[in-house]
Amino acid sequence: MVGTAVEAADQLRALAERFGVDEVMVNPVASARRGTEPASAPGREKTLELLAKELF
Fold first, then answer.
1. Helix (H, G, I), strand (E, B) or coil at 15
2. Which domain of life is it from (predicted)?
């Protein structure tokens, strides 16, 4: 999915409907900046927060 949180949520819903499923696994891809703690993933966390806000 590529786009805003609203666009990604719409694409995700369409994908789930197309395949007749009620559960979809999401693996966000977001880069880290120099100095970011290696064990954390703030970009990925933010991506999931924004998507969840639109889905629920």
1. helix
2. Bacteria
Distance between CA atoms of residues 3 and 8, nearest Å? 6
* Sole residue written with tokens 């120099």: 34
Query: In this structure, are residues 26 and 9 in contact, taking their beta carbons and an 8 Å threshold?
Result: no
**Distance (Å, whole) CA 27 – CA 41:** 12
Per-residue pLDDT reduced to its tens digit, 6-21: 999 999 999 999 999 9
Asked if 30 contacts 43 with a C-beta cutoff of 8 angstroms, the reply is: yes
Give the dihedral of Cα atoms 21, 23, 29, 35; nearest 10 deg.
Answer: 180
Instruction: Give the angle subtended at the CA of 30 by the CAs of 26 and 34, to the nearest 5°.
Output: 150
Give how many domains the chain has, as a whole number: 1
